[in-house]
Amino acid sequence: MIILEQKWAFVDFLNEKIDTGFTLDTCRTIANVDRHGSIRGVVAFSDFSTKGSLMHVASDGSSRWCTRSFIITSFDYAFVDCGWDRLTALVDKRNEDAFKFDTHIGFQVEGVLRDANGSNLDSWVLGFTKRDWWSSKWSDHYKDKAA
Fold first, then answer.
1. What is the mean pLDDT of residues 10-15?
2. Is position 47 within any domain?
């Protein structure tokens, strides 16, 4: 079940998994929760402006957290509901799984943020634009309705 509601449990899950320090006032969350109420994954948007946001993802480590519907809901929220033009992800260069996931779903490498996680601990700067989204498989549900 996908929940687009601000709850401390979602923010706490995110803070525990990726050490963000978020509060209910500093991010907007979307969570994938199983039928027993266990949190499978959380997407958070922070540092938002009228043009875009940083996007953060945390999971329970299982393969069940990332569903097509969870990805689509997250991008729909960003590009349709909020009307943002882009999302930016900062991925620690040591986190190969996150890098592979983000680039697989369509994020593009835009650069490196040097020493972002401490001395000699860099992060990838990844971007995903509204234009990327509309031309991706993730927006097919809109194309199907238009046909």
1. 93
2. yes
146 — pLDDT class (breaks 50, 70, 90): very low
Q: How many domains does the chain have?
A: 1
Query: Nearest Cα to 58, choosing from 95, 107, 25, 24?
Result: 95
Single-letter amino acid code for the residue at 48: F
Q: Write the pLDDT tens digit of every residue in 32-55.
A: 999 999 999 999 999 999 999 999
- With CA atoms as reference, report the closest residue to 95 among 125, 132, 124: 124
DSSP track, 20-74: ----TTTEEEEEEE-TTS-EEEEEEEES--SSEEEEEEEE-SSSSS--HHHHHHH
Tens digits of per-residue pLDDT, 94-110? 999 999 999 999 999 99
Taking the CB of residue 68, how many other CB atoms lie within 10 A of it? 11
At residue 8, the 3 state secondary structure works out as helix
DSSP 116: B
CATH of the domain at 79: 3.40.630.30
> In a 10 Å sphere around its CB, with 0-12 CB exposed, 13-18 middle and 19+ buried, how is residue 56 labelled?
buried
Provide the pLDDT for residue 145.
52
